[in-house]
Design brief:
By secondary structure, the protein is α/β, with parallel strands linked by helices. Among the domains are: 138 residues, NAD(P)-binding Rossmann-like Domain (Rossmann fold, 3-Layer(aba) Sandwich); 153 residues, Rossmann fold (3-Layer(aba) Sandwich), CATH 3.40.50; 69 residues, ATP-grasp fold, A domain (Dna Ligase, domain 1); 110 residues, 2-Layer Sandwich (D-amino Acid Aminotransferase, Chain A, domain 1), CATH 3.30.470. It is built from 23 helices and 30 strands. It has a 7-stranded mixed β-sheet, sandwiched between helices. A 7-stranded mixed β-sheet has the order 9-8-11-10-12-13-14, with helices on both faces. Helix 1 packs across helix 6, helix 6 runs parallel beside helix 7 and helix 10 packs across helix 16. The longest helix has 18 residues. The two termini are 37 Å apart. 51% of the residues are buried. About 4% of the residues have low confidence.
Length: 682
């Protein structure tokens, strides 16, 4: 297939010289009629071809009855709005006409065994295909500056879209439409929006790789259910690092029920939230919890603009409680700070407020009906040299919002930006004032908490610690230590062990190795040995007989076998779980091991798609890695050997029919590691 990828693909779909609309309705109110109406209404300057077998003229454009009636190379891009059973043949015909990219609107391809899906798969697998396909099951694409609206979004029905430096990529068209509406109503704008739908061909990461280098894009927001094109992640990672541009992402379907819902809606398989968040965070994405917060970040990013490292916030609230909320949330955002006021700023504040309030940061300005006083206070803070950005909390109970807008929009051009919020989301500032404020670098975010959260994310506040992965408890089909060992290389760093069918065999192994030794269940049916008494540490020969009989009795009751294992020596115990994630493939989760595994939530995720050097860097930078590096005089542990062991697990398990392997504990020694216990599942 001829290459049309990444930036060339994005450049073509955002500004094609010519477009063909397949399945155009003559009724501009219908979804099938909107794309043609939008192209004519919002300034698309290229040639437009229309395919409609029932009309010779549609919306003022001449129409042809069939795609094959479009001359070869007459159109570069297409939008296809046809029933599912007609889409594959239309795409084949578009490909034969030299069209390079098609946006497929319609649904009906969710079932993998359906005839339209199988026919579409055959077309996409064709080695001679030159046509790239966005969708199906999407709202389409939008590029404001060029007027290329290959979409049926309801947002354009309100009027023209404001141009901004934000790009959106949303797998959900409805969620993307709502996100765009929120951005525009709050005074923001966009450059491009890609609704990608099922992503049978073009995926979100490929489009992101093409968007990031563009001069008209400074910030990108993504709404993802599952990543379908991980092969583009290395280039995206490099481009984020090179450009320094912010990429905010909502990644949904983290819960088991959410994953099932996503699979039913789009036919995609989604994976573990822990792994996804770790991989995306390492790539440079900034994760946000939901679509409302994504809108906050995108609006704030383009209205407030870039912030310096650890920006200084000035805060003022009409409510004392609002001031406390601001202070609490700033304290929870390590990337933000609340400076004290220097004498010149204090003097300017006294000129506005006299001695009516205490002059500290954040400031309570609780005056009802004194809008100008509140506005002048906020304006004074925005001109203070100690502040990089101001957060202000207003209320319709206390303020005339028209007057407040007059005061804030009259600030000098060099003043710091302001983020204005309400005490309640149900007490919003009217949209016309919000748009007016945005032009004066005043962003409106509905609540104080969300305002601080958006600024923290914009400034680089780290994600919260992700919830720890838990090993499944159903032992049906589980593999024990002997089964796992058979899958791994013979030089894997086990603490030496042998199966022992009787007490004499256990005693012989102990004499060869020396004491202490552990006598325990192999783990085929017993996962938590200590809870059942299926493990005993034997420090001398006189203890061996009783210990063996106790463990053997438990193993016989549960259908497990007995092994004896040499002591591993003193070291840091960690748990290493390797999962075959349906979205990301093999990934390892490292947590505190031994008896601490279920008490502590610290963890680090290592992905097989990173190089061994990248995994080592992630491991060393984690809190577990710091703890093992000689933290506060503790003995340093061999973190590099732990990383090498995980690489060996990835290599050995890559082709094995195993979905889950847990080593617990792995003892990290000053030199080398020793793996003790193992359990797994096919």
């Amino acid at each position: 297939m001829a290459e049309l990828a990444q930036r060339r693909l994005v450049d073509l779909v955002t500004a094609p010289r010519s477009v063909v609309v397949v399945g155009a309705s003559a009724d501009p109110a219908k979804p099938a009629g909107r794309p043609l109406a939008y192209l004519g209404k919002y300034g698309y300057a290229g040639d437009v071809w229309v395919v409609n077998p029932r009309h010779s003229v549609v919306a003022g454009y001449p129409a042809v009855p069939n795609v094959l009636d479009v001359p070869v190379d007459a159109a570069e891009a297409a939008i296809v709005n046809l029933p599912a059973d007609q889409v594959p043949s239309a795409l084949h015909d578009l490909d034969s006409r030299g069209v390079r990219v098609a946006v497929v609107i319609g649904s009906g391809f969710e079932r993998p065994d359906s005839a339209p899906r199988q026919e579409l798969n055959r077309f996409l697998a064709s080695p001679d295909r030159r046509l790239r396909v966005i969708g199906p099951n999407c709202v389409g694409t939008m590029s404001v500056a060029s007027g290329t609206h290959l979409n049926f979004s309801s947002v354009l029905g309100r009027g023209p879209v404001r141009t901004g430096a934000v790009a959106l990529i949303t797998q959900s068209g409805a969620s993307g439409n709502g996100l765009l509406m929120s951005i525009l109503r709050r005074g923001g704008g966009i450059a491009h929006w890609f609704s990608t739908g099922d992503e049978f061909d073009v995926g979100a990461l490929e489009l992101l790789a093409g968007l990031l280098p563009r001069d008209d894009v400074q910030t990108v927001g993504l709404f993802l259910e599952a990543i379908t094109d991980l092969e583009w992640l290395p280039e995206v990672t490099d481009t984020i690092a090179r450009t320094g541009k912010r990429v905010f992402v909502v990644k949904i379907a983290d819960s088991d029920l959410g994953q099932l819902a996503a699979g039913g809606h789009t036919g995609r398989v989604v994976g573990s939230g822990d792994i996804s968040h770790a991989v995306l965070r390492r790539a440079g994405f900034v994760r946000v919890p939901g679509i409302a917060e994504l809108a906050d970040c995108l609006v704030t990013a383009q209205i407030v603009g870039p912030l310096p490292p650890r920006p200084r916030l000035a805060a003022a609230s009409v409510s004392g409680a609002g001031a406390v909320v601001l202070a609490d949330h700033v304290q929870q955002a390590p990337a933000l700070s609340l400076p004290a006021w220097e004498a010149p700023t204090l003097g300017r504040l006294r000129a506005v407020l006299a001695d009516r309030v205490e002059l500290h940061n954040p400031m309570d300005v609780p005056f009802l009906g004194e809008t100008e006083t509140f506005g002048r206070t906020v304006a004074t803070l925005s001109e203070a040299p100690e502040s990089d950005v101001v957060v202000a909390v207003e209320s319709s109970l206390a303020h005339d919002r028209d007057v407040l807008a007059d005061v804030l929009t009259a600030r000098p051009a060099g003043a710091s930006p302001v983020v204005l919020s309400h005490l309640s989301e149900d007490d919003p500032i009217p949209e016309d004032l919000v748009v007016r404020l945005a032009a004066a670098r005043v962003a409106v975010v509905p609540t104080p908490e969300r305002a601080v959260r958006a600024l923290g994310l914009l400034a680089g506040s780290p994600d919260a610690v992700e919830p720890a992965l838990r090993a499944p408890e159903d032992l049906t089909g589980y593999l024990g230590l002997p089964d796992i060992a058979a899958l791994l290389p013979t030089d894997f760093p086990w603490a030496p062990w042998v199966s022992t069918p009787d007490r004499q065999a256990a005693a012989g192994a102990a004499r060869r190795w020396g004491y202490p030794v552990a006598i325990k269940a192999a783990g085929r049916t017993i996962a938590h040995r200590s809870e059942l008494g299926a493990v005993a540490v034997v420090r001398g020969e006189e203890q061996l007989a009783d210990a063996y009989e106790r463990v053997a009795s438990v193993c016989a009751e549960h259908g497990d076998e007995v092994v004896v294992q040499q002591g591993a020596g003193a070291g840091r115990e960690v748990l290493v779980a390797v999962l075959r994630d349906p979205e990301y493939g093999l990934s390892a989760v490292i947590r505190p091991g031994g008896i601490a595994a279920e008490l502590l939530d610290d963890q680090v995720v290592l992905w097989h798609g990173w190089s061994e050097a990248q995994r080592l860097a992630v491991l060393r930078e984690s809190r577990l890695g710091v703890l093992m590096s000689g933290y506060r005089g503790q003995p340093a542990r061999d973190v590099a050997a732990l990383n090498t062991t995980i690489t060996a697990l990835f290599t050995a398990l890559a082709e094995q029919p195993v979905s889950f392997v847990e080593l617990n504990p792995v003892v990290v020694l000053p030199h080398g590691v020793r793996a003790i216990d193992a359990i797994g599942r096919k």
